Amino acid sequence: MAASSSSILLLLAATFTVSASAATFTIKNNCGFTVWPAATPVGGGTQLNPGGTWTINVPAGTSSGRVWGRTGCSFNGNSGSCQTGDCGGALACTLSGKPPMTLAEFTIGGSQDFYDISVIDGFNIGMAFSCSTGVGLVCRDSSCPDAYHQPNDMKTHACGGNSNYQVTFCP
């Protein structure tokens, strides 16, 4: 009886772990200049030199998430400023950035995720955004057809739950 109880507990633990897994975001800088990507509500921010990548894990149940590229930044330790996308002078953002900024927006659900690109807050850098099981979105300028331009645009795409995502600057 003890062995079967242990087996059931192990099975339940494995099921919970799978359902609570994170989506992995790989953020790449294809630009010829440094970009300081930021991510809220998880991730924070970092310096990303040309050709560099940054990986973050976003837990299931994360809604209204954003990734954006900051440009023209100067930091001394964890504080500084950026010409675009600045988030109160912090390297690791806890607040959304100041426009203009091209946004990769997402909600990581259980069985299904949702994602889009938005230029409602302006355009500051080209971006590609895709998930492992969905449509690839590309926005190279402020008039890109793959992006939200107004709040009532219908540009949200669905993706299998807890997928792997790629955000590329200067696609």
From TrEMBL:
Pfam families: Thaumatin
Cystine bridges: C73-C82, C87-C93
Transmembrane annotation, as ranges: none
Keywords: Disulfide bond, Signal
Record-linked CDD domains: TLP-P
Signal sequence extent: 1-22
Name assigned to this protein: Thaumatin-like protein
The organism of origin for this protein: Miscanthus lutarioriparius
Native organism taxonomy: Eukaryota, Viridiplantae, Streptophyta, Embryophyta, Tracheophyta
